[in-house]
Amino acid sequence: xxxxxxxxxxxxxxxxxxxxxxxxxxxxxxxxxxxxxxxxxxxxxxxxxxxxxxxxxxxxxxxxxxxxxxxxxxxxxxxxxxxxxxxxxxxxxxxxxxxxxxxxxxxxxxxxxxxx
Length: 116
Description:
The protein is α+β, with helices and mostly antiparallel strands and about 120 residues long. The protein has a single domain, classed as 2-Layer Sandwich (HIT family, subunit A). It has helices spanning about 5-10, 60-75, and strands at about 20, 25-30, 40-45, 80-85, 100-105. Strand 2 and strand 3 form a beta hairpin. The termini are far apart.
């Protein structure tokens, strides 16, 4: 059996978390190691390990995440200037193997400002 990710443990109520947004498909929390003044994580409730593991049946969920990221950014006071990042795989910097979107904002970003 695979060990649950920290995100699955939050979903299952095993780890308390300050959830900033939640709907039937996903939830948003603050990143514990922020790379910007506002750094949120948008996490689907369906445990997809990496983006490459998403299937055709996940298309609606992936679209929902993109639209919800915009709503979450605006509600967090970021406005319309933010960066979305998805790390897929260890070589890309993914450390929690449960698909999630990083929403970063409230700073001027250049190509090198965050090391990406």
